[in-house]
Design a protein that fits this description.
By secondary structure, the protein is α/β, with parallel strands linked by helices. The protein has one domain: 3-Layer(aba) Sandwich (Rossmann fold), CATH 3.40.50.150. The protein is 45% helix and 20% strand. Helix 1 crosses helix 8.
């Protein structure tokens, strides 16, 4: 094999490894899979679709959707520029069409603009979450899809030595009834509000958090175990208290 071909192969392998390592964390993997499944069911094979990932960080959900739906209009929005910059670089490297927007989610996001708005674990980081929800609902078209995942109000880690607070949290979580009442008052019909992130996935997350500073080789070795924990929970094999609520709603 000629040197240029070898170098190209090595570069592709490294890029593939980096992409796989973005989804090592079981909590992230679970909420992305749940969100993707909800969007795919709702979209029903549409060739045109407008979606906003609110509090997207690097926009992993939009990147995955762009791989399968190149004709969709996908917007990843966050108040922090650094993750948006990384996301832009990842999208550019793969030739994916995702718009990255730095914005305050408590301010107007437009009116009747999107077919779907997702807020996956971002609401607990927003001081005025009511204003953010109002902006997200206003941005949805009538009949549009709203998807969220939030921590429960009483969640704790499985391992005593693990973090007992969500990163950058301004509130610890939400009660199911409280969350449903707020969403209904804003003009959404809650179709699904179910517990997620049970003990097996939470334990896998705690283990990953303890080892996340290890090198890529360790992370790759962890990947099958992390993926298996999420797969088992999604097939209904799990136990213990939930540490998250997954919400699916539509705008009236």
């Amino acid at each position: 094999m000629i040197p240029s071909a070898v170098a190209g192969l090595r570069r592709r392998v490294k890029d593939d490894v980096r992409r796989r390592l973005r989804n090592v964390a079981p909590g992230r993997r679970l909420r992305l899979q749940l969100g993707l499944a909800a969007v795919e069911r709702y979209a029903g094979g549409r060739s045109e679709f407008r979606l906003l990932d609110a509090g997207s960080e690097e926009g992993l959900l939009c990147l995955e959707l762009a791989r399968h739906h190149p004709g969709w209009s996908l917007v990843a929005a966050d108040i922090a520029e650094a993750p948006l910059r990384r996301g832009r670089e990842w999208a550019r490297a793969e030739g994916l069409h995702v718009s990255y927007v730095r914005c305050d989610l408590t301010r107007s996001l437009g009116d009747d603009v999107y077919d779907a708005v997702l807020a996956l674990e971002s609401l607990v980081e927003i001081p005025d979450d009511r204003a953010a929800l109002e902006a997200m609902v206003a941005a949805l078209r009538p009949g549009g899809l709203f998807v969220a995942q939030v921590p429960t109000a009483d969640w704790t880690p499985v391992l005593k030595s693990a973090e007992h607070t969500w990163r950058r949290e301004v509130r610890h979580g939400y009660e199911a009834r409280e969350l449903a009442e707020v969403l209904e008052s804003l003009g959404l019909d809650v179709e699904q509000l179910r517990p997620t992130f049970r003990r097996l996935t939470a334990l896998a997350q705690d283990v990953r958090d303890r080892l996340k500073h290890r090198g890529p080789r360790t992370q790759l070795l962890l990947l099958p175990l992390m993926a298996a924990a999420v797969r088992l929970e999604r097939t209904g094999i799990g136990w213990g208290p939930a540490r998250g609520w997954f919400v699916v709603a539509t705008k009236r």
